[in-house]
User: What shape does this take?
Amino acid sequence: MNRLIYLILLLPLLVSCKSRFVALERNNYATSDVALMKYLNEKNILITDSNSVEILNGGKIKFEHLLKDIAQAKHHIHLEYFNFRNDSLNAVVIEALARAAERGVEVRALFDAFGNMSNNRPLKKEHLEKIRERGIEIVKFDPINFPWINHAYHRDHRKIVVIDGKIGYTGGINVADYYVNGLEGVGKWRDIHSRVEGAVVAQLQNVFLAMWNHETGQNVGGSDYYPRPSTKDDARAVVVDRWPKRTAENMRRVYANAIYAAKDSVHIINPYFIPTYIVRGAMKDALKNGVHVEIMLSSKSDISFTPDAALYTAYKLMKKGAVVYLYDGGFNHAKVMSVDGRFCTVGSANLNSRSLCYDYECNLFIFDKDDTEELMTHYRNDKKESFLLTKEYWKSRPWINRFCGWLGYVLTPFM
Assistant: This one.
């Protein structure tokens, strides 16, 4: 099952997420980070201080950290993922969670029913029963019932872990072994995640508990889930969450205003790059104002059709001055952006309508030069396995691929 199914299911809804963003006054702020922080504060998306952030470069290092933190958990472990693939890595994670539950740790796991169904190794009823027998409370978000169309609309695409209210994770990595071992047909699977300590963890906890209580009807909360942060580091960070009908416009407006605030450079990696009207408009505006815009797409993908649409969109931006790289070392699934080397974001949101207009999403925005430079180091390393999109390369592609790209661009509100 792939994104074409999303397209088929969403076409009858005739929903468009076209809306204009509130433009920042470019010359009023000395730096882009100050501009975006002011915008966030005005929207009551409150930035936290004194955080420690680790950029986790790939699935292997993410799960090494996560398993170590699970082993040391004392009170609770909360997990929210698009899917837990029923494979070897999932077995290791479930075993670690079960051992934590044996120690008396509360373990709550939430996964998306559509995400589970769309992978080729889904968790089935008998698997869930065995997991629950081991003390893990695991819940399926919005089970798929007839008619499907009512359930394919808003999906939970977040990737969140909160441990003891002190440690948080978010980014692009689900629980699946191909994030570590690669996937047949695309090869190495590249991705980036983040691990945080400090005040921003409470924001991740808020996101998880709101979804958990909404789905289960429980009322989990209280001071035990919000201990006082102890980190001494000084990174500023904020969680930007997308909840349909509650904070529906947050993600695309923050992305657009982050790009609009840029004075020198914007660097983006995104696997399903079919940006909505306001994000695409912000990129065009940045290019018009002399900002260096670099976009990295993947030459390979796990989903048909979307690479052609992404390439068409990127090619149009390339003709306006953007520099576009095609990652050729496997499939680059990261969803990251850096602006002016001053701030960056790591999260679950793709730059397409599916993420920005329909799904539940979560991104961490980090206002710290050192963390942003670390992210840029990984970006530069990925460029070594990439090649430039050129006019000649575009024209050399089969006409059917170019046509599919145009069609995807036209259908941007549904992709």
User: Anything to note?
Assistant: The CA atoms of residues 272 and 306 lie 6 Å apart. DSSP finds 15 helices and 17 strands in the chain. The chain has one domain: 3-414. The first helix runs from residue 3 to 10.
